[in-house]
Amino acid sequence: MGNIITTLKRFLANKNTVTIIGVLLGLVVLFIGYNYRVNNAVETQVIPYATRTITATSEITKDAVSTMEVLRSTVKDNTAIISNINSVLNTNETYCASDRSNIPAGSFFYTEQVIRCEDVANNALKRMPDDYRAVNLPVDLQDTYGNSMYPGDFIDIYAKMDIDGKLFYGEFITKLPILDVRDSNGRSVFYGNNQNTTPALLLFACPKELYELLSSAILLGTSKVELIPVPGNARYTSEEGETEITSEFIRDRIEYYLMHDPGSTSIE
């Protein structure tokens, strides 16, 4: 036994032996580390995606969801991507697209896009900020650019008027938030599975100080003032901003009509 210990001590005391052992240990560490990184790089994960466009506030149904295999590294650090299909399809819970935007076909599901259907506000007025009033603007499919305006969008209002035989067209109000888009029966176009209905009304949240003016402009009718909703690009439409009048000329003209042609509205 003593000879074995002595031999082992001499073996370990040899510098060449220590070097060889160190190199071997280094190779083992490199091999393990390399395999770990390679396995992580090629390891896959199954995640859900939308097989068709799911419109805002619509229910996410089985036919609209499938799964694909992607590299785990693709979603590892992106916590916004929903990786569990049970978070979009679940026998115990019904999920809907949020009222902020559509979920495009082929897209992954993101946490801010998916909410419980019971949390979709059926009554748009509940989403209206304090000191705001609701205003309905009659529209059609053309006015909404083929039903491309959604609850939660911020759009501008332009005015078209015939003044002394001359056509006037200009920006009137900016950043007016849409509460809802409704059909002729008052149903939300995008709630549930009503996305095939035709828009007839845009329901806006209007600041209290602008409410009377905007309502009066609508009541004057298109023979006096035609109000036209105009969206911006995706960034402009999604970003909140101050709702304000940008044309004092249009304001003055509306007030002129109200004072000199009071019979054109129902306002007393």
Descriptors:
25% strand, 28% helix, Type Iii Antifreeze Protein Isoform Hplc 12, two-stranded antiparallel sheet, alpha+beta, elongated, 268 residues
Count, helices = 6
The helix/strand series, from N terminus to C terminus, equals HHEEHEEEEEEHEHEH
How much of the sequence lies in strands comes to 25-35%
Instruction: Kindly give the count of domains.
Output: 3
Bin the helical content: 25-40%
Biggest pleated sheet: 6 strands, antiparallel
Structural class: alpha+beta
Would you report the number of β strands? 10
Low-confidence segments, given as residue ranges, are 264-268
Mean pLDDT over the full residue set: 81
Principal-axis shape: elongated
- CA radius of gyration: 32 Å
End-to-end CA span? 115 Å
Note down, in words, how this protein is organized.
- There is one protein chain.
- It contains six helices and ten strands.
- It has 268 residues and is of the alpha+beta class.
- Strands 5, 6, 7, 8, 9 and 10 form a six-stranded antiparallel beta sheet that branches.
- It starts with a helix and ends in an 8-residue tail after the last helix.
Give me a quick take on this structure:
It contains 6 helices and 10 strands. By secondary structure, it is of the alpha+beta class.
List the helices and strands and how they pair.
Layout: H1 2-13, H2 15-42, E1 44-50, E2 65-71, H3 72-76, E3 95-97, E4 114-116, E5 132-138, E6 154-163, E7 166-182, E8 201-207, H4 208-220, E9 226-230, H5 234-238, E10 244-245, H6 248-260
Helix pairs in contact: 4-6
